[in-house]
Design a protein that fits this description.
The structure holds two protein chains of two kinds. Chain A is α/β, with parallel strands linked by helices. Chain A is built from eleven helices and twelve strands. Chain A has helices spanning 49-56, 94-99, 111-114, 121-132, 137-150, 156-159, 169-181, 199-216, 227-233, 251-256, 261-268, and strands spanning 7-18, 21-33, 38-42, 64-74, 83-85, 104-107, 187-191, 219-224, 236-241, 244-250, 320-321, 327-328. In chain A, the strands form two sheets. Chain A has an eight-stranded mixed sheet, with helices on both faces. By secondary structure, chain B is mainly alpha-helical. Helices cover 78% and strands 1% of the residues of chain B. Chain B contains 15 helices and two strands. Chain B has helices spanning 2-28, 34-44, 51-61, 67-81, 94-129, 134-148, 151-166, 185-222, 225-232, 237-243, 245-249, 251-275, 280-289, 293-321, 323-326, and strands spanning 86-87, 92-93. Chain B has a two-stranded antiparallel sheet. The longest helix of chain B has 38 residues, at 185-222. Classes of the chains: A alpha/beta, B mainly alpha.
Chain lengths: 335, 328
């Protein structure tokens, strides 16, 4: 078994150059995805989790740009098995086109707007298959039917000729997953795949994703702000705040023993059944800072209840490795 | 789809009926009738027409009958015999006067629409995909000129330039030897050689407008999530753009078919006068001035039929293009 990670992101910085100033959407993201595992990225809106995911596939649009860092991708045996730095590829190069959809696939939050409303489901899946596989139209169609069946869409042959607006939300997301997995990628990036769905459908889609992961042996990078989803799905969790990874740990450790004050505050803000203390939630104090003016030093210090004056507001702490195997970016955990 | 087309065709019947009534009523609206306009014209030249002669003229043309009777006689003639009545002024059957002009107007409009599309399509896409580039600014500038300068002015300038530097008179749709000739291959070639310039001038405003519409629509579509999906699939950039957002932004191109025809016809009246084009414009204008009611009414009727059919064709094309319309 291959022990080197499937995907290793180090020191990634993706900035948006706007007239009003530079938005440092990702300012130091480090994470690792091992073969066959699920890694969750959690954080508030605007913390850079989606931009990190888009950076992997070079999908960040102008005026956004990857300015630093490495995204090392272990290519599958079939395509050479070499180690490739995706951050160094050009957004419109042949290599990245082969990787997008072929080796790394992506599904999105809103399956209605993420599928073209005027092309049939079949058209869009067949297109994905034929982009990466040298198969005939008929063979691609046969594979598409198989995929739809595999993701639990009833009467797949008929559904293939349906348009997205003729399907329910859950069915649309299933079709989206079928399209993403049609070329058997080794990594599936799921950008809030269940946010737009109702709770029952959410559970079904998550269950489907775990099932498919077992079948296809792929890894999943799950982007979400739902800690419940993380607890259910992920082996590893990465917590992001203001474009930085502030903590990384395996899921059990993170939930039982969160290290970073931000993670601790996140955990306190989850409503729990049966634990009605005074019936009030404990939100994180303050607001997410203005993206044009990042706080000096540790970017969480204005909201941190363990803030050490003269230290936290002076220098930015590095991401340190812990004995437990996780990593944390906080001055409280040093040598 | 078949029932959709059938429904639309059935809906055309009341529309056309109403259009014919409106066409007929509009010509009745100005005070007086053809006889008074005719007499006034003669009087301006110093001729005196007796009251009896005026009355016999009215009786001959059936102008004394109630409007409703006149309308049903006229419509009856059209529906049963294809007889559009006679032109009072030209003393000829209307159908002999209008058909060639109507065909030429249709051709001019069609060529104009095609040229509009051919020019607007690539420029619109370029302007949206390379928003705020130098090329986008240049095309935007040209586009604003196109929208704001009236077509007849452009025509005058081009005619002047063509006369001054090439010694040619860019006037009419045929060379002298073909004006009265029967239709032949040579005449069609001659027509095409003359047609492109007025068609281009006529389409100028529409082209500029369509570029702006396509650019705005495409800019909206380019930001939609399905474009990212297309890219994330591994489609090369130009393929992803042409297959998805451009397809979505195409709707206004097809919709133009319906409304471009009436606007071209009304816009072409001045241009036709300036460039001496044998289209319906000048004839319609003249017939309205002289209250030549069957001639004017027939032309308005035929043009509204053309507009309604144009709208139908554009609606059917839209339904073919966009399944969300088809399945409603």
């Amino acid at each position: 078994m291959n022990t080197s990670p499937l995907l290793e992101i180090s020191g990634l910085k993706t900035h948006f150059f706007l007239d009003e100033g530079t938005v440092k959407a990702v300012e130091g993201a480090d994470l690792m995805v091992q073969h066959g595992t699920t890694v969750g990225i959690v954080g508030e809106s605007g913390c850079g989790k989606s931009v990190t995911a888009y950076s992997i596939l070079q999908l960040v649009e102008s005026p956004g740009k990857i300015v630093a860092g490495k995204i090392l991708w272990q290519r599958p045996e079939a395509t050479g098995g070499d180690l490739l730095d995706l951050a160094a590829l050009k957004p419109n190069s042949r290599e990245i086109h082969a990787i997008r959809g072929g080796e790394i696939a992506m599904i999105f939050q809103e399956p209605l707007t993420s599928l073209s409303p005027i092309h049939t489901i079949g058209d869009q899946i067949v297109e994905a298959i034929r982009l990466h596989r040298p198969v005939s139209q008929e063979e691609a169609r046969r594979q598409a039917v198989q995929m739809l069946q595999r993701v639990g869409i009833p009467r797949p042959e008929e559904r293939l000729d349906n348009y997205p607006f003729q399907l329910s939300g859950g069915m649309r997301q299933r079709a989206m997953i079928a399209m993403a997995l049609s070329c058997h990628p080794s990594l599936l990036i799921a950008d809030e795949p269940t946010t737009a769905l109702d709770v029952t459908t959410q559970a079904q889609i998550l269950e489907l994703m775990s099932e498919l992961q077992n079948d296809f042996g792929m890894s999943i990078l799950l982007i979400t702000h739902n800690l419940g989803v993380v607890a259910e799905m992920c082996d590893q969790v990465v917590v992001m705040y203001l474009g930085q990874v502030v903590e990384q740990a395996d899921t059990v450790t993170l939930f039982n023993d969160p290290k970073h004050p931000y993670t601790q505050a996140l955990m306190r803000s989850i409503p729990k059944i049966g634990q009605r203390r005074r019936g009030r939630l404990d939100p994180i104090k303050g607001m997410v800072p203005d993206p044009y003016n990042r706080p000096h030093g540790c970017c969480f210090h204005p909201r941190c209840d363990k803030f050490v004056p003269g230290l936290c507001d002076q220098q930015e702490p590095p991401l340190r490795k812990l004995k437990s195997g996780g990593m944390v970016r906080c001055v409280l955990y040093g040598e | 789809m078949r029932s959709y087309i059938l429904r639309r065709i059935l809906a055309m019947i009341p529309t056309l009926f109403l259009a014919s009534i409106v066409a007929f009523v509009i010509i009745q609206l100005p005070p007086g009738d053809f006889a008074t306009a005719y007499v006034a014209g003669l009087a301006a030249n110093g001729d005196i027409v007796s009251q009896e002669a005026l009355e016999s003229l009215r009786a001959d043309y059936g102008l004394n009958e109630p409007v409703a009777v006149q309308y049903f006689k006229w419509m009856g003639g059209i529906l049963t015999r294809g007889d559009y009545g006679i032109s009072f002024e030209h003393r000829e059957p209307v159908s002999a006067l209008i058909w060639e002009r109507i065909w030429l107007t249709m051709w001019l409009s069609l060529v104009s629409v095609l040229l509009t599309w051919l020019i607007a399509f690539p420029i619109g896409i370029y302007s949206a995909v390379r928003q705020y580039s130098a090329g986008d600014y240049i095309f935007t500038l040209i586009g604003f000129f196109g929208v704001s300068i009236p077509a007849f002015l452009v025509a005058l300038v081009l005619m002047y330039l063509q006369f001054k530097y090439f010694g040619k008179v860019a006037s009419g749709l045929f060379s002298d030897e073909f004006v009265a000739a029967a239709w032949s291959w040579a005449r069609i070639q001659d027509l095409l050689a003359h047609l492109w310039l007025p068609a281009l001038i006529l389409g100028l405003g529409g082209t500029a407008e369509l570029i702006r519409i396509l650019r705005a629509n495409l800019l909206d579509e380019l930001r939609k999530p399905y474009v990212i999906t297309a890219r994330a699939k591994g489609l090369p950039e130009w393929k992803a753009i042409l297959k998805y957002p451009v397809r979505m932004a195409l709707n206004p191109f097809v919709s133009t078919l319906g409304w471009i025809l009436p606007s071209l016809i009304s816009g072409s009246i001045i241009l036709s006068q300036v460039m001496n084009l044998p289209t319906t414009g000048p004839l319609l204008l003249r017939s309205l001035q002289s209250q030549d009611m069957y001639l004017a009414g027939s032309m308005i009727l035929v043009l509204s039929v053309a507009t309604v059919i144009g709208t139908l064709v554009s609606d059917i094309l839209l339904a073919l293009l966009d399944p969300r319309i088809r399945y409603q």
